Amino acid sequence: MPVVTAAELEKQGRRATEDLPEQGATLTAEAAELYARFFKVLSDPTRLRLLALLLEAPAQGRTVSELVAALGAPQGRVSTHLGCLRWCGLVQAVREGKYVYYRLCDERIRLLLSTAGTLLQEHMAGIASCGVIR
Asked: Does the predicted model carry a pTM greater than 0.90?
């Protein structure tokens, strides 16, 4: 997959956002590509676990050390995934003294994950056995 610069993504995002369909309308190829990229952000188990931990975080958020301990994952992996979530605008990092706290940028993530959980419960067998998704 070719590397896309931030400027190109921003340009594509503007164009695809302008093409987002009304409810019930067909997706353009550009809009579908942008939707797919959005769901790829959520397609990693570590990133989903990070979002879940941040949903339940205290108001100031959680430090990388807290997230590493909660996940039992290497610090480098946690930092990489936090960087992805931050770049994509789902989490923010806030420095308070010598600590950097991570927290969600948008409470709608709670609704998104809740809706996904409901859909997963209703379609779990098919999703678990799908041979196309790896």
From this structure: no
